[in-house]
Design goal:
Layout (H helix, E strand, L loop, with lengths): L2 E4 L4 E4 L2 E3 L6 E10 L2 H7 L9 E2 L4 E8 L11 E4 L9 H4 L17 E3 L2 E5 L9 E5 L3 E3 L6 H22 L7 E4 L3 H12 L5 E5 L5 H7 L3 E4 L5 H8 L16 E6 L4 H9 L1 E9 L13 H5 L4 E4 L7 H13 L9 E6 L3 H9 L5 E5 L1
Parallel strand pairs: 5-9, 12-13, 12-15, 13-14, 15-16, 16-17, 18-19
Antiparallel strand pairs: 1-2, 1-5, 3-8, 4-6, 4-10, 4-19, 6-7, 7-11, 8-9
Helix pairs in contact: 3-4, 3-9
The protein binds nicotinamide-adenine-dinucleotide and zinc ion (2 copies).
């Protein structure tokens, strides 16, 4: 079987993979398309430490090939999006609508593959850069056959993460203002989540100037090229302090919400500094382990600023994946527009190069 393996040093396109048959609670999926998320790249450069050998990819969609004896919710032939949460379904987090906080859903590694005859583990409980993968039943979410796989696959991470951070975690209200740092696959989905929430001013910030048209297409009302201007100052010019509030002290002016979709301490610091009184920054990007950010505590304590983390859009896959499909089919959520290029597995390196060069919304592998 073909797939992309993280060897510990690099990513290798190989045909030396085999996958197990599904156990009683598992589903075997024939992957049709898979998006390349920055988190896959973060495994390769060590930002996200992971076991090797392992099969990469965690943003995928495909067709159910076979199901285990106790699986009831999907059957062979169903089209599914793969959710990365192998959540247990029985703990307090799962039963209060927070499967992203299920302890079983984090760092849960199994070994359904062999690579050149040796055991190989999965990545993010998904491993969708392979012709076939094995997931838990709870992770195979059936979708309408009307959604092309190249668009559906993106729901599996970038869309749930970005749109979910706005709808589920921040719960942005109509008319509120926001800044989005990083206009990649995740940031564009934050931007369209803000558009869906009727945010008034949506300021996109990137270090690649050519991202501006894309940001505006998804709903940004302003764009700041962070290589040409101080992003915080620009944001405070676009959303100045409220006339009734005291200027000068405790950094008034700025947005109600900011989202770090890059994963760098300096970017998160800017996201905090760009907040108005009462504003909240949401940390989505994932820097190396141990990364820290410093803030002036008085700027938080006196005027109710806050900082939130957000994993996987605080999503509940069996609610949010059908919701994203419904919004797409009714013309309210852009998925096709996220697909900048499609390539076979052998084109993985080209996608990585184009991603680093800031050329992509998303690159998608076709299996
Ligand atoms: N919390 C989660 O659940 C979750 C889920 C998915 C991805 N992520 C993380 O989110 C981050 C973004 O992922 P992605 O797939 O959108 O990446 P991407 O490579 O598609 O996009 C990153 C964007 O950030 C821009 N950028 C880089 N440095 C910048 C800077 N200093 N200021 C402003 N913009 C800058 C790039 O030009 C690019 O447009 C990664 O760290 C990824 O690991 C987190
Ligand atoms: Zn991802
Ligand atoms: Zn659980």
């Amino acid at each position: 079987m073909r797939g992309i393996v993280y060897t510990g040093a690099d990513a290798e396109v190989t045909d030396k993979l085999e996958v197990a048959e599904p156990g009683p609670t598992e589903v075997k999926i024939k992957i049709a398309a898979a998006g390349v998320c920055h988190s896959d790249l973060s495994v390769l450069d060590g930002t996200i430490p992971w076991k090797a050998p392992s099969v990469l990819g965690h943003e995928g969609a495909g067709i159910v090939e076979a199901v285990g004896s106790s699986v009831r919710s999907v059957k062979p032939g169903d089209h599914v999006v793969v959710a990365t949460l192998a959540s247990c379904g029985t703990c307090r987090a799962c039963n209060t609508g927070h499967p992203t906080m299920c302890i079983r859903s984090l760092g849960n590694v199994s070994t359904p593959f062999t690579y050149d005859g040796e055991p190989a583990s999965n990545f993010a409980a998904a491993s969708v850069f392979a012709e076939y993968t094995i997931v838990q039943e709870v992770q195979a979410v059936r979708i309408s056959k009307d959604v092309p796989f190249t668009s559906a696959c993106l729901i599996g991470c970038g869309v749930l993460t970005g749109v979910g951070s706005v709808l589920n975690r921040a719960r942005v209200q109509p008319g509120e203002t926001a800044a989005v740092f990083g206009v990649g696959g995740v940031g564009l989905n934050v931007i369209q989540g803000l558009r869906l929430s009727a945010a008034s001013r949506i300021v996109a910030v990137d270090t690649v100037a050519s991202k501006e048209p894309l940001a505006r297409q998804f709903g940004a009302t302003h764009f700041v090229d962070a290589t040409q201007a101080d992003a915080v100052e620009e944001i405070k010019k676009i959303v100045p302090h409220r006339p009734q509030s005291m200027a000068g002290a405790l950094g008034p002016g700025g947005v109600t919400w900011s989202f770090d979709c890059v994963g760098h301490p300096a970017v998160l610091r800017n996201a905090i500094d760009a907040l108005d009184w009462g504003g909240t920054a949401v940390a989505i990007g994932v820097p190396p382990r141990g990364s820290e950010v410093s803030v002036d505590i008085n700027n938080l304590a006196y005027v109710d600023r806050g900082l939130l983390g957000c994993r996987y859009g605080a999503s509940r896959p069996h609610h949010d994946i059908p919701l994203m499909v419904e919004l797409y089919l009714s013309g309210k959520l852009m998925l096709d527009e996220l697909v900048t290029e499609t390539r076979p597995l052998e084109g993985f390196r080209d996608i990585v190069e184009d991603m680093h060069a800031g050329k992509l919304a998303r690159g998608v592998l076709i299996l």
